[in-house]
Design a protein that fits this description.
With about 350 residues, this protein is mainly alpha-helical. The protein has one domain. Strands 1-2 form a two-stranded antiparallel sheet. The chain is globular.
Length: about 350
């Protein structure tokens, strides 16, 4: 699974989170609550929480990162999510527990390979759009060609692996998996046992997640929802609408007509093409970058979303504190599982 940009992305509004995506890839099977994706349009989702009034306050120093590199910026809700390193550890620990469980039933199992990244480096990198002039001068809105090729090669290799047998599928997901039991499952497995042993509720993945203490690899439904909701909510703030209007006027003066930055990013003319990236796409992307930089679009947008997330945290302090403690327990359990030989 990959991160980021709509050509290859599984999420950007993160969304809801590259860390979660990485964990899912490491485990070889998605968690019970899949990561949400965003096409970066105001209409895809609505916040359920009214947008706070605009404030001129600048981001605190801890949130600023490197001014020119949004990948180094941090949104407030990220402290309630695992880091990418923690997400990998949780995913690998889950895979280890699943493997042990399957081995106990006499069935060999290998998790999905961790696919190489393509596109954004983390959940913040392209959250507000492109920002790498050197890459855009070569690739427009597309990911780096070598990264994309490595990702696609690894994905093809993973898809070429033999599918688990019907019995193994039941062992992995349990007898109550959505969609019912797969055709071809043995009578014993259909009865909830394998080699005389009972199949745990939710199968080996269910058992592993029970041991870890989370069915969503440490990201609670509340944190997931708030992280997702803050993105479309930010698009409705007065300052973001105003900076988009300034960006749009700047683009029009350069001969490109879009209402908002994500409209350029998602222009259907700019799709992956075996013939390569068109000069039109490159010219549009470079104009886009120039207008973004002139009006500090990403910084204004980030500041608005940061403020929204701060309000969400104030409104949900007790629950989020509990979620952070729960995440800490999951991380400790994952680390202990990986250390246990």
């Amino acid at each position: 699974m990959t991160r980021g940009h709509h050509r290859v992305r599984g999420t950007a509004a993160a969304l809801a989170g590259a860390a979660f995506l990485l964990a899912g890839c490491a485990a070889g099977q998605p968690a019970d609550t899949p990561p949400r994706t965003s096409s970066r349009t105001p209409s895809e989702a609505s916040s359920g929480t009214s947008s706070p009034q605009p404030s001129p306050s600048a981001p605190p120093a801890s949130d600023r990162g490197t001014a020119a590199d949004p990948a180094t910026w941090t949104l407030p809700l990220q402290r309630f999510r695992p880091t990418e390193a923690q997400a990998r550890s949780i995913g690998r620990a889950e895979a280890k527990l699943v493997g042990r469980c399957m081995e106990g039933f006499g069935v060999a199992w290998e998790p999905q390979a961790e696919l190489p990244g393509a596109g954004p480096r983390n959940m913040m990198d392209w959250r507000y759009g492109i920002h790498d002039r050197a890459l855009s001068a070569r690739r427009g809105y597309q990911p780096d060609a070598a990264e994309q090729a490595r990702y696609e090669t690894a994905l093809r290799a993973d898809r070429a692996r033999p599918a688990p047998s019907a019995d193994a599928q039941v062992l992995l997901s349990g007898t109550g998996a959505p969609g019912g039991l797969p055709p071809g499952a043995s009578a014993e497995v259909r009865g909830g046992r394998k080699n005389g042993r009972p199949i745990p509720p939710g199968g080996c993945f269910g058992q592993a997640r029970t041991v870890l203490g989370s069915s969503t690899r440490g990201i609670t439904p509340l944190v997931d929802r708030l992280t997702f909701d803050s993105y479309p909510a930010s698009l409705e703030t007065p300052e973001v609408k105003a900076v988009f209007a300034r960006w749009s006027a700047c683009m029009a003066r350069r001969g490109h007509h879009y209402a908002a930055p994500m409209d350029a990013d998602q222009d259907p003319r700019f799709r992956p093409d075996p013939a390569g990236v068109s000069q039109q796409e490159i010219d549009t992307a470079l104009a886009d970058l120039a207008c973004r930089e002139q009006h500090q679009v990403a910084r204004v947008w980030f500041t608005a979303e940061r403020r929204i997330q701060e309000q969400y945290i104030r409104q949900n302090t007790a629950r989020l504190t509990e979620d952070r403690h729960a995440l800490d327990r999951v991380v400790r359990t994952a680390e202990a599982t990986l250390a246990d030989r």
